[in-house]
Amino acid sequence: MDRVTFERMLYEGMKDRLKEHEEEDDMGTMSILSQKGDETVRWDKDDPASVENARKKFLEFLAERKGMAIRMNEDGQKGDKMTDFDPDAERVVLMPLVVGG
Amino acid sequence: MKLKNAYQRWSSDNCANTSLTLPTYAGTCDSTNNYTIDYDSTSIDAWMGSGTAQTGSSAQDNQIAWGSWEWRSDDRVPNGQFWICSGHGSIVADPKMLKKAEMERRRRELLPSAGATRFGLPQTDNLAELKARQLLKSFIGGERFRRYLKNGFISVTSPVTGLVYQIFPGHRSVVVRDKGKRTASCCIVFKDKSLPPTDWVVMRMSLIIADETTFYEKANVSGQIPERLRKAA
Fold first, then answer.
1. I need a labelling partner for A25 at 20 to 30 A (CA). Which of A40, B91, B122, B157 fits?
2. How do residues B218-231 score in pLDDT, each as one tens digit?
3. What is the ipTM of this complex?
């Protein structure tokens, strides 16, 4: 095996990890829980269009599904409830209506 | 000594020219369970060399040592993971094997193995459930996620009251524990029952972390509401 082949194979093995690393940025992420798994909406607070799009989805969801929005920090250790969209939030989980079981 | 699963075929037969000494392997190792390995290798396409390596994670006597470390003599393998086979006297790192092992590890994370305990999560090819598991993993991290797949629940400690919640997927109650003692169980569900089971875990976990009071308001509680929660409220 020559060196180029060897390095290519190493790169293939590491590619996913590199991709994950590259995706770590300042963008906010909103996960909308639904029957089809979660839908992810991302926004950049410096980009008004993406913020507006996220805000629109946020408000639509709360109005239509009567659900709840929770803001979490990046590692999911802290959170609080949200009633209005906040572009500074790191991660937001939108969940449909919950009831006592 | 047996090698495990995917690494099995890499025995000394495949690297006959490799010699290895494991001075701390037989009997004891140092207090931190690290193994120091002196190796001397010129085989496997000559990309391994001589040097000393030390396992980075704990391993026990009579087990195959597992660890990740840097090959100090060769920069081309900066952070490989290798199996050390004392019985066969070989150290082998093959890029194909590394890639295969990584893919296998990722597959197992999403699809728990058939050998999992009966309490673990079943395998699934449901895309919604897989996405839900991926979302949960992004919150709780790889190690806790693996435990979730194995045990079938996650434990969440409330940042406000310090109570521990045992959260199960799907339509099952959340068990509340105060200093290890079960004090109550709370049932809270999605009105739309068709959401994937692991999304229920995300919902319960988020509610507990973000707003414990709302969690208790919404849930059907059986047992005593913990004293600590009343004080916090």
1. B157
2. 899 888 777 777 66
3. 0.76
